Amino acid sequence: MPAPAMEPLTGYRELPSQTMLEHAQANYQNLLRRRTVRDYDSRPVDRAVIEQCLLAAGTAPSGANQQPWHFVVITDADRKAQIRAAAEEEERTFYSGRAPEEWLRALAPLGTDASKPFLEEAPVLIAIFAQKYGIDAQGERFSHYYVPESVGIATGFLISALHDAGLATLTHTPSPMGFLSKLCGRPEAEKAVILLVVGYPKAGCQVPVHGGIKKPLEAISSWL
């Protein structure tokens, strides 16, 4: 196997220790303002902003750099209405019997139910698909590696970029999500994993107190 092509590392920048800490603190404080929003204004979002955030998501690391993700941006009102109808059908089944009682108790502090008006009200929906395998130039299938991990990292980059741009988001995961593949015209190789709702919070928007409670550092980390 030939040696991989290499190039100089040019993008890295080392910062003075104090500057490094200030950047880390500022980033944390910025992300600390982020809240999941369920009430959206219908104002449109500039397409160029969404595209820049998608480019940011595309810089995420991935297994073997295969970048096994695809983002479908939906702004069409009719398509959003179809997605809402299909999602609410799955959600009604979920809340009326499919979900175990323990799961419903965990969701209770967030006040969620089968009604998902934000799927029509928000100006942008981004359906995130994981590519289970790839197709080469000869039409042959090849494996993708670390797909859930890679798509999860890219989704985190996307949410962070949207928040930094001044937009609110909601990670919606109706189960199952097979209807999204059909409504978005995606191939069999892809599986819908998240429906990301994007837009501006509605005037007077409220969010559940529970969603703002984050675990302290000692509960989420340890040093060896």
From TrEMBL:
This is Nitroreductase family protein. PANTHER family: IODOTYROSINE DEIODINASE 1 (PTHR23026:SF90), NADPH NITROREDUCTASE (PTHR23026). InterPro entries: Nitroreductase, Nitroreductase-like, Nitroreductase/BluB. Coiled coil: none annotated. The lineage of its organism: Bacteria, Pseudomonadati, Pseudomonadota, Betaproteobacteria, Burkholderiales. Keywords: Flavoprotein, FMN, Oxidoreductase. Signal peptide: none annotated. It holds the Pfam family Nitroreductase. Residues 32-200 form the Nitroreductase domain. It comes from the Bacteria.
